[in-house]
Specification:
289 residues, alpha/beta, 4-stranded parallel β-sheet, single chain, 18% strand, elongated
């Protein structure tokens, strides 16, 4: 099992880090009391979870002096453990709390009466001090969320899972799908609907496919869409996108769009895109069989 412990100061980006790890396939637990960590790891190990990320911070009011010994015990059991400590300077933290207008978790550390934001930050630094010696420290004072995500990827050598690319056929007369990131209109191609024998069939049937393959513009359209996506998909992946939906529309969503969406998905699978991303195809207008 590979375990990542995410800790550090409130407002330093722990949620961004945990979301990044979740996207990379980790089973994530937020705000776990430190004394419950051994039981959690034991339970998840029995359930065959291979990658686990746990956020432990000052909200749990735990005795953090014991956590280094827990980490050492995990390593003696053969488990791989990385601890990330996210921090930022006081100016950055105060600005972030001011922008979000959220209360610091330790603002009531003095009992019934609130303490100042500055005092809460100072108290949190002192409370988390024992974790610095076992952690990789990332100062997020000047980092944007995307930069922090990239640093975590590089630090932990996270396996790049890539995009989930969905090719979705639809009919314009039924409306453009709301989830489409790109929409390609293929209504300019000859329509099999006007052939009485092809009308009841779909773009998944061989006679319709043969009809469209005999039209020179069909392959040109497919090649142009394929070239565009091949060029730009990696940029969306670099932008930390998890999903990209490519809408292919014709008039009714039964013939042309179905064939082209099916063909594009097949081509991207064949060229090896599946090694980096999942390729899916969905026909919005066709009745499931």
């Amino acid at each position: 099992m590979h375990i990542v412990l995410v800790t550090g100061l409130s407002g330093s980006g722990k949620s961004v880090a945990l979301n990044q790890l979740e996207d990379a396939g980790y089973y994530c637990v937020d705000n776990l009391p430190a004394n419950l960590l051994p039981n959690l790891i034991s339970t998840l190990s029995v359930q065959s979870h291979s990658r686990v990320a746990v956020s432990i911070d000052a909200r749990s009011s735990a005795d953090f002096t014991k956590l280094p010994d827990q980490v050492a015990a995990f390593e003696q059991q053969g488990l791989s453990v990385h601890t990330l400590f996210l921090t930022a300077n006081d100016t950055a933290l105060i600005q972030r709390f001011s922008e979000t207008r959220r209360r610091h978790p330790l603002s009531r550390a003095g009992g019934e009466h609130d303490v100042s934001l500055q005092d809460a930050i100072t108290s949190e630094r002192e409370r988390l001090l024992p974790l610095l010696q076992i952690s990789a420290v990332i100062d997020t004072s000047t980092l944007k969320a995307r930069q922090l995500q990239q640093w975590i990827k590089e630090l932990l050598d996270l396996r790049k899972t890539g995009l989930t690319v969905l090719f979705e056929s639809f009919g314009f007369k039924h409306g453009i799908p709301m989830d489409a990131d790109f929409v390609f209109d293929v209504r300019c191609l000859p329509n099999p609907y006007y052939d009485v024998s092809l009308r009841p069939q779909t773009g998944l049937d061989a006679p319709v496919q043969q009809f469209l393959q005999n039209q020179p513009d069909t392959d040109r359209m497919i090649e142009d869409i394929e070239h565009f996506l091949t060029r730009w998909l990696s940029r969306f992946e670099d932008d930390n996108r998890s999903y990209l939906t490519i809408g292919i529309g014709c008039t009714g969503g039964q013939h042309r769009s179905v064939y082209i969406a099916h063909t594009l998905a097949k081509r991207f699978i064949e060229k090896g895109l599946r090694d980096k991303a999942q390729v899916l195809v969905r026909h919005r207008t066709l009745t499931p069989t």
